[in-house]
Amino acid sequence: MPLKRFGFAKATEGEIKTPKLLRVGKDIEFEGDTFIFLGKEIKRGVVYPTSLEQREIKITENIYLIPNLGDLLRNTRELVDYTMALRDKLGFDKLFYAPGIPPHLLPVFFYLGYDIFDDSREKLEPYSLIGPAENSSISNFTEFMLQETLKAFNAGRLRELVESIPDNKAKEILRILDLKYYEKQELFWPIWAPTLNAVSHDSLFRPDIQRWLQRLKERYIKPLYAKYLLFLPCSAKKPYSISKSHREMRKHIKSTMHEVILTSPLALVPRELEAFYPAQNYDIPVIGHWYEEEKKMIREAVQWYLEKFQYEGIISYLPESMRFLEDILRENGAEMIWGHDLKELERVTRKIDYHVPGREVLRENLGVLAAYQFGIDPEIMKDTTIKGRFPRIDIWKGKRRLFGYNPEKGMLTLTKDSAEILLKENRYTVKIDDFHPEGDVFAAGIMDASPEIREGDEVTVAFNQELRGWGTARMCAYDMLQERKGKAVKIRGRIKD
Amino acid sequence: MELSELQRKIREIRRNAKREEKKGLIGAWRERDRLNGEIVDAFVVILRTRGCRWAYHSGCSMCGYFNDTNPKMSEEELLNQVREAKEKYRGERLVKIFTSGSFLDDWEVPPKVQESIYEEFQDAERLIVESRPEYVTKKKAEMLQKYGNIMVALGLESANDETLLYRINKGFRVEDYKMAAELLNEHGIKVKTYVLLKPPFMTERMAIEEAISSIEFASRYSEVVSLNPMNIQNYTLVEYLWRRGEYRAPWLWSVVEVLRRTHELPVEVVSYPTAGGTKRGAHNCGKCDEKVLKAIVNFSLTQDIKHLENLHCPCMERWRKIIDVEDYLWDYTANL
Question: What is the ipTM of this complex?
Answer without folding.
Answer: 0.95
